[in-house]
Amino acid sequence: MKNKRKRWKNGVILIPVLCVLLLTGCGLFQEEKIKLRDLDFTVLSDEKIPEELKTVIVEKGTEPFHLTYSDDQNLYISIGYGQQKTGGYSIAVDELYLTEDAIYVGTTLLGPEITGQKKGAEKPSTPYIVIKTEFLDKTVIYE
Description:
InterPro entries: PrcB_C_dom. The protein contains 3 helices and 8 strands. It is an alpha+beta fold.
């Protein structure tokens, strides 16, 4: 009889402990990204985009894409949102920062209703952005 009570007591303690471990376990293995610093950047016009990168962007056509390109002095981060039904879109850079392991970039596609642009709205468009920043040999994470 004492053996059964001991097992039952162990089960009562063990079940809540397992639940806590399962609920917090996923968070234990996630690495915390600590921002070291914001990165300075320039949004490039079509004329300033390196030809090699421009060629790859054209090849992507109407599909969404994330590209990086470097020339040992600068890092170029390009994000395309794919074909949109109308024109008048723009892209905002929300964040560009460095962590110990990576560069994080976040952008938002702004529609014609937000940008107030009406010209060319009847034609489909393929909005993209090219961001130029300092060369860093890090992986780029798109958020």
